[in-house]
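Hi team,

Below is the intake form for 4954_t:CDS:1 from Cetraspora pellucida. Please confirm the fields before the structure is written into the shared record.

FORM ID: S-0412
PROTEIN: 4954_t:CDS:1
ORGANISM: Cetraspora pellucida
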Amino acid sequence: LFKHYLSANAFKDKIKKLETENMKLAKALENSNNKLRSFHIKLWNKKVSTISLKQNQPKALQLPSYSYNVMADESTREDKKDFL
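The structure came back. Fields below:
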């Protein structure tokens, strides 16, 4: 039933791995004239949100009829939006 949840140690290991990747990204940015591309932000956000969702997954997500939605801020209609 709870196999999708990470143990505390596994969660800490994942966070440590992400922090290491973040440090590598920071060094790469220093070497590339500080050009942060949306790809890097998307990749980082995707990894962190995946861990967060798995760790905090509501029981309703286990139901076959449950859906997960994304909301967009309509006040920025003409701006580019990057969704996870």
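SUMMARY LINE: The mean pLDDT is 68.

Thanks, M.
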